[in-house]
Every structure is written in structure tokens, then in C-alpha cells.
């Protein structure tokens, strides 16, 4: 009982308390810059184009998208665990041009295992700048756009038409066989009640795990 009370009081000491399931340490978010004009704010399912710098607790930088790799910002989809959990939680309601500092406890980052050059149990700090926010491929807006006859469900033809349009938009030649196969694949995975249509519930990302 005392241990439980203590662990609630001093969350930084949680890691040293052994046994039992520990409550998750908290994510700290700080807005460093918010642009004056904000047309839309990021939400689950959106795609975000981000630049980010990552630091260990001692202040050493372990990654910077501005100086590593191709030095380009990267796209990621918010809310589907494409990145670490701390990002999904900490990058909501962001405007294009906004910059935040996230201090992420291991439970919301790479946990007990660590990953690559991230040692186990690392608290990580990220400075994240969002360059652009777009509707994700599985957003409510995309669903409405794909639902050509407005019956609130997507037929295979509607999905195929959408794939064709997306291919053209990105400069690829349409490929009916490929679109057909992709559509079958999508329906095999997503049409959970097997009625031959995707409902908006079946289509949009589920966020139960967050
Ligand atoms: Ca429809
Ligand atoms: Ca269905």
C-alpha cells in the first residue's frame, strides 16, 4: 500500500519500484512556436510532414532530420502507431508551422528494449516542427471524397475509382489489374462484416489502443 502511494506521489521514481504494473509516466508537451494563421489543426488519421531533432536526457542529439539522411522532412500518419506513441499523443492539434518540444518517457517511446542506438529505458526529447498537415488516406474527409453516390458506404468500384485517381495524381499510369488486386486486398482486410462494402467505421482508423 505504501509503495502504491509513493509511486503516485513521485512519478520519476516509478522505474525503480519493482513488480506490479506501473502507471505510465507522463508525456510533457511545450509549444515553442505557433504561427499566427492556422487553417487547420492536426488530428488522428492526418498526415503530417515533420522535421525533428531527437535528444537523450543528457542533451546529446541522436538524430536530426535536417542534417541526417536525405535532410528532408518526413511524412507520417498521426494516431496509428506509425511512429512512437509519444508522437501520436503529443502532436495532436498542431498547425502547419508549429514547433513543439516533447519529453517522452520510455513507456511512450522505445520502452524497456530500446531500439538501435536508443538504449533501454530512455526518456527522449524531440523538437518537432510540422511543415504541413494533410488529410490522411483513411480520414473521414477521404471517405466522403471516395463515396461518390453518398450512400455512406464504399463499393469496390468506388475504391477502384479512387485508386485510379490517386495513381494519376501522383503521375503513375492507371493499371486496372493492379487496382483490382489492391481493392480485393483492401476488402479482404477491412470489410470485416463481409457485406461487400466498407462502412465509414470499417474504413477509418481505429484508435482504441491509444
Ligand atoms: Ca458509396
Ligand atoms: Ca462492410
TrEMBL record:
Residues 134-169, 178-210 form the EF-hand domain. Residues 45-134 form the PPIase FKBP-type domain. Its EC number is 5.2.1.8. Keywords: Calcium, Endoplasmic reticulum, Glycoprotein, Isomerase, Metal-binding, Repeat, Rotamase, Signal. It catalyses: [protein]-peptidylproline (omega=180) = [protein]-peptidylproline (omega=0). Gene3D superfamilies: 3.10.50.40, EF-hand (1.10.238.10). InterPro entries: EF-hand-dom_pair (IPR011992), EF_Hand_1_Ca_BS (IPR018247), EF_hand_dom (IPR002048), PPIase_dom_sf (IPR046357), PPIase_FKBP (IPR052273), PPIase_FKBP_dom (IPR001179). One of its GO terms (cellular component) is endoplasmic reticulum. Pfam families: FKBP_C (PF00254). Residues 1-20 form the signal peptide. It comes from the Eukaryota. PROSITE patterns: EF_HAND_1, EF_HAND_2, FKBP_PPIASE. The keyword DNA-binding does not apply. One of its GO terms (molecular function) is peptidyl-prolyl cis-trans isomerase activity. This is peptidylprolyl isomerase. It comes from Austrofundulus limnaeus.
Amino acid at each position: 500500500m505504501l509503495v502504491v502511494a509513493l509511486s503516485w506521489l513521485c512519478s520519476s521514481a516509478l522505474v525503480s519500484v519493482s513488480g506490479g504494473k506501473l502507471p505510465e509516466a507522463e508525456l510533457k508537451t511545450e509549444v515553442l512556436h505557433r504561427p499566427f494563421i492556422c487553417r487547420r489543426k492536426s488530428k488522428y488519421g492526418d498526415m503530417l510532414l515533420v522535421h525533428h531533432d531527437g535528444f537523450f536526457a543528457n542533451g546529446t542529439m541522436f538524430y536530426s532530420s535536417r542534417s541526417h539522411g536525405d535532410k528532408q522532412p518526413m511524412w507520417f500518419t498521426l494516431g496509428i502507431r506509425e511512429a512512437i506513441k509519444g508522437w501520436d499523443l503529443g502532436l495532436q492539434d498542431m498547425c502547419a508551422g508549429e514547433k513543439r518540444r516533447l519529453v517522452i518517457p520510455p513507456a511512450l517511446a522505445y520502452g524497456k528494449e530500446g531500439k538501435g542506438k536508443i538504449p533501454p529505458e530512455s526518456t527522449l526529447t524531440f523538437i518537432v516542427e510540422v511543415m504541413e498537415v494533410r488529410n490522411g488516406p483513411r480520414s473521414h474527409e477521404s471517405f466522403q471524397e471516395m463515396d461518390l453516390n453518398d450512400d455512406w458506404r464504399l463499393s469496390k468500384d468506388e475504391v477502384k475509382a479512387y485508386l485510379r485517381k490517386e495513381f494519376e495524381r501522383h503521375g503513375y499510369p492507371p493499371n486496372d489489374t493492379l487496382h483490382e488486386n489492391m481493392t480485393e486486398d483492401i476488402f479482404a482486410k477491412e470489410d470485416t462484416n463481409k457485406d461487400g462494402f466498407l462502412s465509414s467505421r470499417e474504413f477509418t482508423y481505429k484508435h482504441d489502443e491509444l
